Amino acid sequence: MKKPLWLAAIALSAACNANVDTKTSALTANSSGECVQKDVGESDSAVSIWGGFVKDNPNNCANNPAICENMGLGFICKMDSGCCTSSDSGACNKTPDCTNNAKAVCIERACVPCKADAECTEWATARRDSRNLCISGVCKECRGTTDCKDPAKPVCDTMIGSDTINSCYACRQDTDCPLSNVCKKDEAISDTQMALGSCLQNTEIAYVNNTVACSAAGPGTVAMPFCELNDAVQKGGKAFIQITGSASVYKPLVAAGGGVRVVILGPGRDSAQPAIIQGLDVSAGASVTLRGVQVAVPGGSGTAVKCGPSGTVYLREVFIKDSNEGVNADCTRFWMESSRVQLAARNGINILGNTIYRIVNSVVMYSGGAAAQHGVSLGGSSNGYFAFNTVTGNIRGVTCSAGQRLSDSVISTNQNAQVEGNCVESRVEKAVVVMSGSGASPADPTLTQDTCCVDKASQTQVDADLKLVMPAQISVKDDYLRSARPKGAGFDIGHKELR
What we know:
By secondary structure, the chain is mainly beta.
């Protein structure tokens, strides 16, 4: 009689274990180890009936390791209680149980520092982590930028003492991208929101170069570039276009239509051999960024940069010269940074309608005529951020129509009124004498004395002005020469950070 009951008990126990759902039956121990899932022990009555045995507890992970495994990485079996516990304590069954990259290798049920890349590779692969290199006992992402394979984090932090040393991060400046020298760090340069912080790859570029054998048909490679920008925009199929400096000017670019979004990259605003475009006209939903080029209209007879209905124009490090009107913007958005407008026969910059603008770190000089006399005219109900600019040598300085704000700028040594109309001023210098050559031979503006303009704006003041701009805009980090702002106790006003 006793033996059949014994066999029945075994069968019953097996049946119970067979019905256990290891994903739901697992119980975890807390930090004090409270949780007991030990097997059911013998009692005198059990011995008298069953002949003595220990019944398996189906929730005891010592009997069923799958319980902890099914809870995911980082859980191990606490053998004395039979409960699963997090391996944050440093205990482990295998390397993937280790959660800390400083102790990422499991040896004799303990997480310890790594000794080789292969150990970190095993750990990183199991945990779907990018830190697969062993550096000084810690699993890290990179020893150099070549280790950073993710386009969204292309740069390796190698600065000794940095909290993020040997970690990959998104590019922050163009020099972080040695191949293209272009970091997609803001909406003016990036082709998509998802691409922000990634480096431009050569495969993303169509080339325009009229100094070598070129073709209107393309394909826009280095070996066979387009001859003109219009061909590259219409046929190149790339969001980025690199244009080569040349003694021969390039024809005007006309961009229209919501499917057009291009970033045009030249050799530099002040390049000894610049890329000169004879004009830019953007409208009907198109978006064009110019960087590092010059714009000059033949004979100065037209508008150099026109941003028309529903268009968007970004100018960065652009030199506009010899035009009837430097900029005419009655569009969705017009941004100009680290750029220069000079010798416009009418207004240097003319903002109209409901345009949202950003004019920062720029120079407007020797512009204006009898019919339109201002270096800068902020008209209509336009609104935006006008800051850290120098406006000088024009017939008249700046005029506003509807309470547009002027901040942290030098507007001085214009022939007549410096600021007029309905402008709101914050830290605008109008008295200092600005030396900028002459209309016949303009020169980069300098101040006869700089005490007026050094350390004049605090970070709090600059941030407060930015908060008044809707929609919100990015903060100012550098100046006309792309030198960092601020350098001293505060921001220097005008287009350059002086000292």
